[in-house]
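Reopening this one. Same input as before:
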Amino acid sequence: MKRICILSTNENVLEAREIAKAITEFEVLNTPASESGKLPATHWFCFMSTTEEGYAQILELQKNSVMEESSPKSFLQKWKLKIIK
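Same output, byte for byte:
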């Protein structure tokens, strides 16, 4: 199993979600994030576990997003973002 983080900007999130619908039954990129941790959201984030096969399919999202095998905390710190609560 691979544990991956996915991040998309506001500008690309709708297209990334559409691509994801063809790949997975799960809703993705639904967690808002910003540098300050306050609205407005500038990015959308998700974290998931997947098989090698699922990971290969999800790589199609990379056109519109950043994907890395990482813990959510480390990933968001690297991109200098905080989840909006």
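So the earlier flakiness isn't reproducible anymore. For the record, Helices lie at 10-23, 52-58, 72-78.
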